[in-house]
Each structure stands twice: as structure tokens, then as C-alpha cells.
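sry for the spam today, last one i promise. C-alpha cells for design, 137 residues
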């Protein structure tokens, strides 16, 4: 077996692993019951699956320009996916799209309570319920 064949085999294994994790994340988005579980499925396995797939492509092509391009994609994905997941969770929390019984620890409730926010049962930004209450000046 030559070195090129070994690299192709490693690339194929990475691609199959990446496809598996992407499929698992997609199934999690469809099958998980609540928004917080779906947020987890949308970020962790999807990012890991994409990273494995990109590594598979990199091992298969073996060009410095490809490695540099894929490195940029990997860095941007690692930087943006957690932020997107965090924002989805925060919007779900503030809009009342989750059940308080689903959480074991709710650290955000205390911070929001100190800031004047209350949990909305019905999310309507035009009503201003998601804004902090104003103290009398």
C-alpha cells in the first residue's frame, strides 16, 4: 500500500465519520422534544461532523492551498457555531419556548431577574414585554 492510498483511506474514513455526525445532528433536530435539546443537536454534532468532513477532503486532495482554505473554514465554524447556539438558547429562554422543569440549574434566571426581565409566556416584541421594566425616575 502506497502513501497516497493510505491518505485516501484516512480521508475516506474522516468523510464517513463526518457524514455520520452530520446525520446524527440532523436526526436530533427532527427527533428531540424541546428547543434546548435541538440547540445541542444543531451545534455540537454538526460542527464535529463538518470538521471531520473537511479533514477528509484535506487528506484526499493533499494540496497546501486546499489545507489553508479548509483551515479558514474550520476556524470560522468553530468561532460562529457556539455563538449561534448560545443566541438560539437565549432567544428561546426569553420567549418562553422552553419548560422550566427541563433545566436542573437555571443560572440565567437570576441575572435576568436582576436586570428587570420577566419570563414571557407569549413572545411579542411589539408589546415590549421582552424589555426590562423601567424604574420610576
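last one done:
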Amino acid at each position: 500500500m502506497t502513501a497516497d492510498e493510505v491518505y485516501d483511506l484516512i480521508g475516506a474514513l474522516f468523510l464517513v465519520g463526518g457524514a455520520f455526525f452530520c446525520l446524527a445532528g440532523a436526526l436530533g433536530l427532527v427527533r428531540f422534544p424541546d428547543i434546548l435539546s435541538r440547540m445541542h443537536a444543531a451545534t455540537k454534532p454538526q460542527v464535529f461532523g463538518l470538521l471531520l468532513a473537511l479533514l477528509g477532503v484535506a487528506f484526499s486532495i493533499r494540496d497546501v492551498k486546499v489545507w489553508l482554505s479548509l483551515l479558514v473554514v474550520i476556524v470560522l465554524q468553530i468561532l460562529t457555531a457556539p455563538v449561534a447556539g448560545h443566541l438560539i438558547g437565549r432567544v428561546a429562554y426569553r420567549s418562553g419556548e422552553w419548560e422550566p422543569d427541563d433545566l436542573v440549574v437555571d443560572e440565567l434566571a437570576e441575572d435576568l431577574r436582576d436586570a428587570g426581565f420577566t419570563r414571557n409566556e407569549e413572545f411579542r416584541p411589539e408589546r415590549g414585554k421582552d424589555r426590562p421594566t423601567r424604574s420610576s425616575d
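The first helix runs from residue 3 to 31. ok im logging off now
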